[in-house]
Amino acid sequence: MMFEKPEIVPVDVVLQLKNLHLPNYQRPYKWGVKNVYALLDDIEIAIHQADKYADFKYRIGTIILHNDEDDSTLNIVDGQQRIITLALICKALASSVKPAMLNAKITSKTSEENIQRNFLSIKTFFTDKSMNEKKRYIEAMTNVLEFVVVSTTQLAEAFQLFDSQNTRGKALFPHDLLKAFHLREMRDHPNEMKHTVEKWEKTDRKDIYLLFQDYLFPIKHWIEKDKGHRFTTVDIDEFKGVSFDLQYYYAMRTVKGMPIFQIDQPFVSGKNFFEYVEHYLNLLSDVKEAVLKEDIDLFLGGGGVGFSYAKQVFYCSVLYYCDRFRNFDDQIIKRLYAWAFMVRLQMQKLGFDSVKNYAIGEKVGDRETIPMFYLLQKCMKESDVLKIIIPMLPQEEIRYSTKNNDKTLLLENIRTIFGLSWGGAQ
Fold this sequence. Notes:
Blueprint: E1 7-10, H1 11-15, E2 20-21, H2 33-52, E3 58-68, E4 73-78, H3 80-92, H4 109-125, H5 131-143, E5 145-152, H6 155-166, H7 174-184, H8 190-201, H9 205-223, H10 249-257, H11 271-292, H12 304-325, H13 330-346, H14 352-360, H15 372-378, H16 382-385, H17 406-418
Parallel strand pairs: 2-4, 3-5
Antiparallel strand pairs: 1-5, 3-4
Helix pairs in contact: 3-4, 6-7, 9-12, 11-12, 12-13, 12-14, 12-15, 13-17
């Protein structure tokens, strides 16, 4: 059975499609017991409604399929979680409906574990149900429950439909949309897509989100003396890279330069995006490890919101320096620390808007600052970084006051770094 236009189809018909297939690029089956019981509750409500109203139908969701014209396969682009769960319900009820998904080869350990757990949960749900009640669930698959089926022969269009479908009602994170975009760029390499998705799924989503939100996105803007804003879905074009097929000179140079990454340079779209994310997660980890090895107390463990903002701009500066020169010079790290945390001393209340101004070299309060990220980009040798003049904050301009020893420790750290005794501009 093929679908040439959107159709409303009984659930049992979809489940028994012989050409229904779960492609390699799909993420693992991740529904938990809570999701399963929510679906079972929906079905129970639909059954009660069908008792009240003649010809009552319940739309249980939309599934998006990619119709592969070469072999008539219907690849599931969206709806995997629901389809597999409904198949498990049919199996638990020993229904005459024989879902094709039950014969699919499961290669993901995550999927296998979730399927086993959810199947046991479904069997437990029906333990106290009478034979008549179970029969009603079986009949609902044919007479009550329906899918809206959308199919297209173009994989790119299928992913666009997926993006549109999933942005209704709940917002996707920017990195989720980037993942979908770059997977589309890999559509001619299904095996690579499969392994890429498996690797991506093992990475902590929060780590990926923070990498873009707190580091890569602001650095790209601060280099250009643009204070930037919060990273949202409208900004994903900045991380779409360039197509392998483009013949522009800058694109050809980018292709030849892969897989060497630079934050301020484009990369090739597709597989390289996932390598890009992995690379910068690893580099950020190395940066934090290098900072901890310094013999100076960098005071990164607390100090309130203002300190957290100064800490972020510090890590961003070290990340960009290491990204550019592939080294961890202790002198440079300490000087970047002095530059980043000097703004904490300058302000009694330090907000992120002030930190962003500081990063791009705009005035903070009445004091001129330097565009550190812009200057780092201009450095051609690592030794050039040490030549960047960091204006010292005169003691009379220190506005930060606190009841604990935060200020004293900061003063001591910065004084030690520059080999100075504090007493005005030096």
